[in-house]
Specification:
Layout lengths: L3 H24 L3 H24 L6 H53 L12
Helix pairs in contact: 1-2, 1-3
Length: 125
């Protein structure tokens, strides 16, 4: 199964390319595209697991080194994507909080605006 090693490395490199695309989408705040690429990423990782389970011979030192470099870059990319996602989550929480505060203000305003007068003791005609 000698050709499995280059195939395995090629799949790791494919995952790295997807990871770099995900990072690019996160940097550009293209969240829908990020989710789409992430689906492909998960499928590629599943394929790697399958290839690893079928690997019968040990990997050469060169292939192991190449895979190790790919894995290091994957970890760096994942760290940055997670950081950008946390920032986006914080932004969304803030927007939801603002929306809730505005809704409370509007609700309070409408309760009082339905009354003809806000002054106590004023005689209505």
């Amino acid at each position: 199964m000698m050709d499995a090693c280059p195939s395995l490395l090629a799949h790791y490199q494919q995952i790295l390319a997807l990871s770099e695309n995900m990072l690019s989408m996160a940097r550009q705040s293209e969240w829908d595209a990020l989710v789409y690429i992430e689906e492909k990423y998960v499928q590629a990782v599943a394929k790697i697991a399958e290839l690893n389970s079928r690997q019968e011979s040990p990997l050469s030192a060169v292939i192991q080194d190449n895979i190790a470099r790919v894995l290091q870059q994957l970890l760096k990319n994942e760290h940055e994507v997670n950081h950008l996602l946390r920032s986006r989550l914080d932004q969304l929480k803030e927007l939801i909080g603002q929306s809730n505060r505005q809704q409370s203000i509007n609700s309070a305003y409408h309760k009082f605006s339905d009354r003809a007068s806000m002054l106590p003791g004023e005689i209505k005609k």
